[in-house]
Amino acid sequence: MSVEIKAGEDRYDIVVDGKTAGFLDTRTRPDAVLFLHTEISDDFAGQGLAGKLVKAALDDVRSQGKSVLPYCPYVRSYIAKHREYEDLVPEDKRAEFEL
């Protein structure tokens, strides 16, 4: 199984064996990326792909030197479980996202 993350304009896709398995919708601002919605196709559910997708997207945003506003509940819970990404959420916004 090959897994590929494709960063596009306001979207990250996860591709498995040439098929789009899911996506993460975002909106890019000058200093932050808003994470809005994560979705994995039912055909690919239960394989840990959402976590791989979110991790890759968070790593990409970090490499750009931007912050993250995790409006997507899945992304919020991922950051809560993987505290090494909490620093991407501005300190003054963490309470808003329960982080």
TrEMBL record:
PROSITE patterns, per database record: GNAT_YJDJ
Q: Which Gene3D superfamilies match?
A: 3.40.630.30
Please give the Pfam families that the UniProt record associates with this protein.
Acetyltransf_CG (PF14542)
Q: Which InterPro entries match?
A: Acyl_CoA_acyltransferase (IPR016181), Gcn5-rel_NAT (IPR045057), GNAT_YJDJ (IPR031165)
Specify the N-acetyltransferase domain's residue ranges.
Answer: 4-90
Under what name is this protein listed? N-acetyltransferase
Q: What is the protein's species of origin?
A: Amycolatopsis azurea DSM 43854
